[in-house]
Amino acid sequence: MDQKAQDAITSGNTALGIEFGSTRIKAVLIGPDQQPLATGGFEWRSKLENGHWTYDLDAVWSGVQAAYAELAAAVREDHGVELTTVGAMGFSAMMHGYLAFDAAGELLVPFRTWQNTSTGQAAGELTQLFQHNIPQRWSIAHLYQAVLNGEEHVGQVAHFTTLAGYVHWKLTGEKVLGVGDASGMFPIDVATGQFDTGMIAQFDELVAGRGYGWQLADLLPAVLPAGTQAGSLTADGAKLLDPTGTLQPGIPLAPAEGDAGTGMVATNSVARRTANVSAGTSIFAMVVLEGPLKSLHEEIDLVTTPAGDLVGMAHCNNGTIDLSAWVSLFGEVAAALGATVDTNTLFETLYRSALTGDADGGGMLAYNFLAGEHGVGLEAGRPMFVRSPESTFTLANFMRTHLFASLGALRVGMDVLLKDEGVQLDSMFAHGGLFKTKGVAQGFLAAAMDTPVSVGDLAGEGGAWGMALLASFLRSGGGDLTGWLADEVFAGAEVETMEPVPADVAGFDTFMERFRAGLAIERAAVDNL
């Protein structure tokens, strides 16, 4: 066993990050070199209850206890010591949503997650009132929709927060939130790093005649930037996390963060003029801006990094599911012919075939919309493949078209930032399942954005590792998060960068002309099928 690792664990020269993802709770313990020493996890799922997507709060605690217990067992098995303390810890989770509590700390309504799309009226009204995009996922949209619905609980609200904020509160007694996660509750004034007081006043005026007896500022958590201590693990909190009593209280906690913020940290994309693109079930880009946007754009969410810098987020509901379905269909064909092909080989073979296709995909068109896509004005989706008699119908062009389609809605959102707003990018990091086949989707993304795109193993253990890094940053004394990540975490990281190829850029632009023109076909399918 590694003596250095043992010494780091027993002396508390470590940091712990735990993230509540949509399907998995993950815990990562890192050492002084910022690399993982042990991990643990727990699978969970949301459920639809009385018209709202939710998670039981009992599952929050049974899940995090299971993830922590698995991590502690890994420490015991791999390093031969008990985990009794860590140097710092922090919790992150899915952003947005609505957890509302009364003055006694009792939950007023079941947790409403980011998945809910029942706040359209509230989001629309607040967007126009603030002249700042308020997506349906945001916590303030959930609160105001409850106001509009006349829900009885609203007058009893004493505190509302996100999932990460709730966990942090229960473990420390502190109603605080990291600025990145807070920016998905209510707009942040980046000049102060706090909730926008002008918009708070507008909201209070909006609901003033309803007799609630509260003002919004009293309901919101305090906001802290990365590197600031946000409380300590209490004795009750230690027992809540580790019912065996082995973990000791007193551990300092970093501000709780959202999964978008930890993703930026884990991909070293917190500096201005950097971006990261995550492509899986959904696909989104986070672009760290140099200043405010000139205009209101409902296609762009405005959030912040964990350090408080403004971020433009282009979020698309539809990622790689339809593409994977086509790959699975080809796998069925192979099986019907008696061929045995493993999944990785199947994906790689089909993806690589796209490299030999025509630059624009041979004149064909596809939409990957299984769900609605707000950025292109669709409340529902119908996956579709279309070709004309003149299209060059080959496997290479078919795969290229579907790979392009997986980036189409993202390009629409990014055009707002890069073309309409003139945002400048120095680098873009790509991660997620779409980019596992080397040099294919990475090159297509570079063409779609006309920007160099890098891939590598930066993301480590994902968002939980990003949260552990934020806890380690707290231990280091805080300061400049961008510089600390560059010097202490990613200085020796290996990345591979692809420059945009002019012919591919032109080809993707041609595809996008078809993509935009063909949205009328997609609209007709939604309306008629």
CATH H-level name of the domain at 268-317 and 414-498... which superfamily?
ATPase, nucleotide binding domain
Major beta sheet, strand line-up: 16-17-15-14-22-23-24
The count of strands amounts to 24
Just give the CATH class of the domain at 268-317 and 414-498: Alpha Beta
Q: Count up the helices.
A: 18
CATH topology of the domain at 268-317 and 414-498: Nucleotidyltransferase, domain 5
Estimate what percentage of residues fall within beta strands: 15-25%
Mean pLDDT: 95
Helix-and-strand structural type: alpha+beta
- Measured distance between first and last alpha carbons: 61 Å
Give Rg in angstroms: 24 Å
CATH architecture tag of the domain at 268-317 and 414-498: 2-Layer Sandwich
Tell me, briefly, the overall form.
globular
- Poorly predicted ranges (pLDDT <50, ≥5 residues)? none
Helix content: 25-40%
How many strands, which pairing sense, and closed or not: the largest β-sheet? 7 strands, mixed
3D architecture notes:
The protein is of the alpha+beta class and 529 residues long. Among the domains are: 135 residues, Nucleotidyltransferase, domain 5, CATH 3.30.420.40; 116 residues, no CATH class. Helices cover 39% and strands 19% of the residues. The protein is built from 18 helices and 24 strands. Helix 3 packs across helix 4 and helix 11 packs across helix 12. It is globular. The termini are far apart. Belongs to the FGGY kinase family. It holds the Pfam family FGGY_N. GO terms for molecular function: kinase activity.
